[in-house]
Every structure is written in C-alpha cells, then in structure tokens.
Write a structure and sequence with these properties.
With about 250 residues, chain A is of the alpha/beta class. Chain A contains 10 helices and 10 strands. Classes of the chains: A alpha/beta (about 250), B mainly alpha (about 375). Chain B: Keywords: Cell membrane, Membrane, Transmembrane, Transmembrane helix.
Chain lengths: ~250, ~375
C-alpha cells in the first residue's frame, strides 16, 4: 500500500479546474517528484495534502488515515511536513526558535506546566534541543543558530525551511521547489541533502521542482502534470521522453 | 563584547544569558523593592501606577506583541477584572482569593470573546475589540445592581493576613503587592516564551499557514492567547481599581484602551522589556508635561492653565515619531545603543534594518 494516495482528486475554483481527476501513490522510502509547466496544479496538490483546500471530489489517504476528515493542523500530527514555494518562516524569531516550532507536534506539556516551567517542561525542552541540534548539524546551520530569520540570505532561509520541516520528525516530507532561487552550488548541496534525507533518515520525499537536473538526479519516480491532470508517471527518463510531456513543454510539431 | 560559550542546553533554556546579566536584574529588583525607603509617597504612588500599567501592558503584549492580534478593547478587560475583584471582596471573599479569581474570570470572558474574534484579522479585529470597549461602558451602566452603575463603586484598603493594604493609608505594602504581581506575571511570561506555547504564539504571529503546517492549531492557540492576555489584564484592572479607589463606567474608557496599545508600541512590540519601558513613558509623561509647562511658563511668561488635549497631542506625536523612526520601540532603540557599545567601533548603520520580505502569494487569508 502506498504511504500517500491520491484517488481521483478533483479541485475546482469556480469554473477553473485546478486539479482534474488526479490519482497517484507515493511509495514508502522513495523520492517522488512532480513536474509540470506553471499553473499545472503542482503546488495545489501540496495545499490539498496540507488541507488548505477541500477537494471537490476524490480521496486523499496518508498512512491509512483519511486526510479529508481531519483539521489542517492534524495533518502534521500524522507525520507530514512541508516547505513552501515562497518561504514561510517565522521572520521575527531565531533559526533555533523556528526549528523548535517544528517540534510542536511532540508537545507533551500543557499551559500550566509551561508557565511554571516544571521539570517535565525542562526535560522536554532539552529533548527538543537535542533533536534540533542534530538537524542543525545535518544541514550545516550552526553559524546561523541564534540569528533572526529577517536578516538571513535567501539560500539560507531555504535550508532553514527544510530544517524546520525535518524537525517535526516526519514520515513524509513535502518540498515545494526546494531549488528555486538557489545557486548551482546550493542546488547540488540540496541534491545530496535530499538523498541523505531519504537514505539516512528513511523519510519519504515528495517534491515539486522545475530543475530537471535535480529531479532526474534524486527522484525514483516522476509525475508530470499539465492543467491539473496527469500526463505521465514513471522514471525520470521515461517521463522526460514521453510524447505528451514533450508536447506540454515544447508544443506540437507542426 | 561578552561572548558566552554554550556548553550545555540549559544555558539556552534558562532565561538569563550568564551570571552577570542575572545579577544586574537582581540588583534592579532589589533597588525597586527598596523604593519605599528612597522615594516619597507621591513618587511611590507614581511608581506603583507605572507598575500597574506595566502589568496591563504585559497582558496586551501577549496578544498583540507575541500573537499578532491587535486589540483596541483591553480597557474592557481591565474593567471586568476590576469589578470582579470588588464584587468578590464585597461578598466577603478574602482578597488573596478574590484577586486571582478576578483574573481567572477575566480570562474566561476573554476566551469567550475570542471565539467570534478568531475569524478577524488586523484592522477588522481592532474594530471589533474597539466596539467591545465602547460596549463595556454601557454594560457597566446597565448592570447597575452589580457594578453600581454611573455612581460607581469604592474600594478602600484590603486585608492580607491581617495587614491593611491601602493605596493612601499604607502606600508601601500596596507597592509591594503590585511589585509582587508584576514579578510573578513577568516570570510566568518568560517561562511561556521559552516553552512550546509561547513559540506557537510567535509562529501564529509571523505566518499562520506555516504554523498550521507545523501542527499548531491556530484557533486553539489564539483562544489561549486571548484568555491569558485577558487574565493578566484583569489582574492589572483589579489593581487599578484599588489604586484609583473610586471608579465608575467612565474610568475604563476607550481612551485607556488606546493608551494601552500606544504604550506597548512605544515600548517595543514583542518584548517583555517593551511593556515596562512603555509604562514608564505613559506613567511619567503627564507629570513630566506639567513640570515642563511650569518651566516654560517661568521662562516665556504666561499662565500655567491646563491646555485641554495637550497630553494627548503629545502622546500622538510621540507615537507617530516612533512608528516612523523606531518601529521596534524603546526596547529596539536600547538594543541598538547596546550593540553600538558592544561592537564599538564596528557598528554598521544598517545592522538592524529590516529586509523587504518576499512576495506572499500563498497567503490564504
């Protein structure tokens, strides 16, 4: 059974069909990429998983849970973490605080034990920091630990977002254009990190990406979309040479 | 510049950076605690007033400074706290019980108000809360059997373990009472900020979508923030009632709400220091103005007749100046000055400059 499963999902905004009868499954342990031209509905797929939108029809299942039956904040509790296309960090907090927010779903204390800062709250804070420090080491963020996000360069913010998503200790990581706006070196770093996230941490990765070099480098399977519908699904090489995909990107030979 | 080498997670978790910083705060606390011995009764009263405002400011800071929900209606919650305290004491409940219960009741009222407020953002929330503040005036008049209506209520001193605590008869114990409340609230606030809940407040403030994606329940977090904020404000209201002695429906007017919000903006949104610094400005400005008016009259001639609206005019100008030149408030200015000295001569002008943020096309509001 797939870890994440889309079953004939359709989403309409008024007359516009953003996602059209889309079905696919992400297997546990794979890197699954979604590609497609602008406006193909790739980010909308992510926002559907995050429950920002309610689909018009269809079902979305994660790890045996019906995602459509829960609140948006409960999706993270099942072990789905995500990054955003236009970085959505907590601007006026430090990198460490941002990552610690990622630990929120593991919170065991309540309002009163936190205000009194009981030994349980203290222990939890130490545990959270141990986890977060591992991620800081993994993504080389040591130099930025106590820096405010508002003062960080774009490339670092991008990495911090991945770090924050990892801090939730997810089963499935959704990366929305992890390499957009990154330099060639930063993109190749990102490529190794995605590889390590899958191999070392055993986290399934679902990503939307335009950089075909990165997509063919790390992903096991690729889903090509256009106008909200599935064009092709297969290995990177298969999808790249698929006639429908070539047509969507380059147009028809006349 | 002092550089702290961190070798233990506790160094990050405990509220103070190092022993030096802790000792500075303890010395400050000791000096303030000893105020009754080095201040005359008038200025002790003023200092008490500043501390009460600071507690109210801390209450509003939780909601506006840390959760990002603007409120122009916190005078209403001051009123709830004040009247709850008095009504309970009149019913024979001892002060030490009535006071926290007044805070608790205000918190419950706040959480109830939060439910319709959850869907509102920014300016709409400000208008909603402003309406609340206006309504409270009428509610107090209408609920005359409980609140005394337009005639108001009077609360003399209260008894704590057989000791009289009264603003006029025994200013020193009253000052210590207020100081103790301020310290307890501040410590609770610090604890909150270093725990998951405080961080989730900041997360909701800075980006609701990603807070949600991290598993923070937005509605729940906002409700808790409202409740905590109102509870603290209620405590401040109870103290304000004891400080004023007599109060009626006009004591907690919309003007107080606006002053509260101005106070935390001037002090510095999103910092505990900001509530205290803002309270010092708001608390001492009237005195400062009347003293400087006398000086001005002595120099330029003319009379010292009160000019109506002068105080508010000056408040307004200060607020505009802060928003234009120092959006981070007094605390932000203090941080800059401190950094300038710590890094001398390497301070750069743009060190604290805010970067333009990127497009937020994915905001789902």
């Amino acid at each position: 059974m797939s870890l994440l499963e889309f079953e004939s999902v359709t989403l309409k905004f008024g007359g516009l069909t953003a996602v059209d009868n889309l079905s696919f499954g992400v297997q546990e342990g794979e890197v699954f990429a979604i590609v497609g031209p602008n406006g193909a509905g790739k980010s909308t797929v992510f926002n559907l998983i995050s429950r920002f939108y309610d689909p018009y029809a269809g079902a979305i299942r994660f790890d045996g849970h019906d995602l459509l039956r829960v609140k948006p904040s409960a999706v993270a509790a099942y072990g789905v973490a995500r990054t955003f296309q236009n970085i959505e960090l907590f601007e006026h907090a430090t990198v460490l605080q941002n990552l610690l927010v990622g630990r929120h779903r593991h919170r065991k204390t309540n309002l009163f034990s936190e205000i009194l800062f009981t030994p349980a709250a203290r222990k939890q804070e130490i545990e959270n920091r141990e986890m977060v420090e591992e991620i800081i080491d993994f993504l080389d963020l040591q130099a930025f630990r106590d820096k405010m996000i508002s003062g960080l360069p774009y490339g670092v913010r991008k990495v911090v977002e991945v770090a924050r998503a990892l801090a939730t200790d997810p089963k499935l990581l959704l990366l929305d254009e992890p390499a957009s706006g990154l330099s060639v070196e930063e993109t190749s770093d990102m490529r190794w990190w995605i590889d390590d996230i899958r191999r070392q941490m055993g986290i399934t990765v679902l990503m939307v990406e335009h950089d075909m070099g990165l997509v063919s480098g790390v992903s096991d399977r690729v889903l090509a979309m256009a106008d909200g519908a599935k064009l092709a699904l297969g290995t990177p090489a298969e999808v790249q040479s698929h006639p429908a995909v070539v047509e969507a990107y380059l147009g028809k030979a006349s | 510049m002092r550089i702290v080498f961190k070798t233990d997670y506790m160094q990050d978790i405990r509220p103070w950076k190092d022993g030096y910083q802790l000792s500075l705060y303890l010395i400050l606390l000791a000096i303030v605690t000893a105020a009754p011995w080095w201040l005359d009764d008038f200025y002790l009263g003023e200092l008490t007033n500043v501390l009460i405002w600071a507690i109210a400011g801390l209450g509003l800071m939780i909601l506006t400074g840390h959760t990002g929900q603007a409120s122009l209606g916190h005078a209403a919650f001051l009123a709830v706290g004040c009247y709850a305290n008095v009504v309970l004491i009149e019913a024979g409940v001892p002060f030490l019980l009535a006071f926290p219960v007044a805070g608790l009741l205000t918190g419950i009222v706040g959480a109830t108000v939060a439910i319709p407020a959850l869907r509102l953002h920014g300016i709409y929330l400000a208008i909603f809360t402003l309406a609340l503040s206006v309504l409270m005036d009428d509610i107090i008049v209408l609920a005359e059997p409980i609140t005394g209506g337009v005639a108001g209520k009077y609360l003399g001193g209260v008894e704590i373990f057989g000791h009289l605590v009264d603003r006029w008869a025994t200013p020193a114990p009253f000052f210590w009472l207020v100081l103790a409340v301020a310290v307890v609230v501040t410590l609770g606030y610090i604890n909150l900020l270093r725990a998951p809940l405080g961080r989730s407040f900041i997360a909701v403030r800075d980006s609701e979508v990603s807070a949600q994606a991290m598993g923070v329940d937005i509605a729940r977090t906002k409700t808790i923030s409202f409740a905590l904020s109102c509870a603290v404000t209620g405590l401040a209201g109870a103290l304000m009632g004891m400080f004023a002695g007599a109060f009626n429906n006009e004591t907690f007017s919309v003007v107080i709400s606006i002053q509260l919000l101005m106070m935390i903006v001037i002090g510095g949104l999103g910092s505990i220091h900001g509530a205290f610094l803002g309270a010092i400005v708001i608390g001492f400005l009237p005195q400062f103005l009347s003293i400087s008016k006398e000086y001005a009259a002595a120099i330029f001639g003319g009379n010292t007749v009160a000019i109506p609206g002068l105080e508010f005019g000056i408040f307004g100008m200060i607020l505009i100046a802060f928003i234009l030149f120092e959006p981070m408030g007094l605390y932000g200015r203090w941080l800059k000055i401190r950094t300038w000295f710590e890094l001398f001569p390497f301070y750069r002008k743009d060190m604290f400059k805010r970067q333009k943020s990127y497009l937020k096309t994915e905001r789902l509001r």
